[in-house]
Amino acid sequence: MNKAILITGVVAGMLAVILGAFGAHGLKKIVDLAAVDSFNTGVRYQMYHAIVLLVLGSMSKIEEQRKKSIFYLFTMGMVLFSGSIYLLVVDQSLGIDLSGIGFVTPIGGSLLIVGWFLFLRAIIKIK
What we know:
Its main location: membrane. It is built from four helices and no strands. With 127 residues, the chain is mainly alpha-helical.
């Protein structure tokens, strides 16, 4: 499980750098600055959680089942939160109306919050 968590953290971090570069250089040409700011929020949260996955995967004192739950919450939270922001920012540029997926963003954020809560509980339970 640790290897999967670490690989996911590395891939999420790498994608955050790629998407951040796209947001800084390519996105400004196709959307307004407010949309670029939203996109950057998605990138920032993705990078934060990529780093946290690297920490989580490196911790040996947290029980495997707890670690697995935290991993799934963070991963799904990143996909839903950051992914929905990315799609909502570029939808008009792609000629697709994705405004109907806006409800996904707070669900993703909620998963991230629950993941942090479980991470806190797991750390408190370390003996």
